[in-house]
Amino acid sequence: MRANKCFFRRSLCFFTLVIAFGVLVGYAQDETLAEIKYKEDYDRLQKIVSVTQPIKRAEQLVALYKERPDMDSKLRDYADSFFIKDMDSLTTQKNFVAIRGITERALKARPQFGEAYFFYGVILKNEKKIDEAMNAFAKCYLVKGPLQTKGKQQLDIAYRATHKGSLIGQDKIIKNAQAELK
Question: What is the pLDDT of residues 35-87, one digit of tens each?
Fold first, then answer.
């Protein structure tokens, strides 16, 4: 009987060690996979940012956003800074056709991409589609990011221009945009 208890205890201890080892190996594999993915994304992003043509670089960034929706947030922020730079450059060049296509594809890949909403709003405003532009600026304002304040400023300007200088009722546009973002 005593031998059975000893055997049982040893078996239980061995079984516990096997499970603990399996958990540790699984955790190490997950961490290694995350490191590999980070390095792959980092290397790909470095190739993309070395491109000097704004349209080509922005299109490659959109492809990266689409293929890696779960990209590390630091890498995504870094990529976003180049996206903003490229959209600014294209805006200066008045290449509105390119901006429209790139921002539409970016928003399909990342529906919560405030910077893309900002430049999409600029395009819509340029096309005299003020209601749609206000919606895009409201979405930019609602998504935390570097252009959030500019999005609100542009929303205010567009709203005042169509409502006799008043901001009364603007909250409805923001609420509708918020519902669409969910």
Answer: 999 999 999 999 999 999 999 999 999 999 999 999 999 999 999 999 999 99
Provide the whole-model pTM: 0.82
Query: Could you give the angle at the alpha carbon of 132 between the alpha carbons of 126 and 138, nearest 5°?
Result: 105
Q: At 129, give phi and psi (nearest 5°).
A: -100, 70
Written as six digits, the tokens of 76 are 């995504």
DSSP 80-106: HHHHHHHHHHHHHTT-HHHHHHHHHHH
Convert the pLDDT of each residue in 79-100 to its tens digit: 999 999 999 999 999 999 999 9
Q: What is the C-alpha separation between 84 and 127, in angstroms, rounded?
A: 21
Instruction: Compute the distance between CA of residue 114 and CA of residue 102 in angstroms, rounded to an integer.
Output: 14
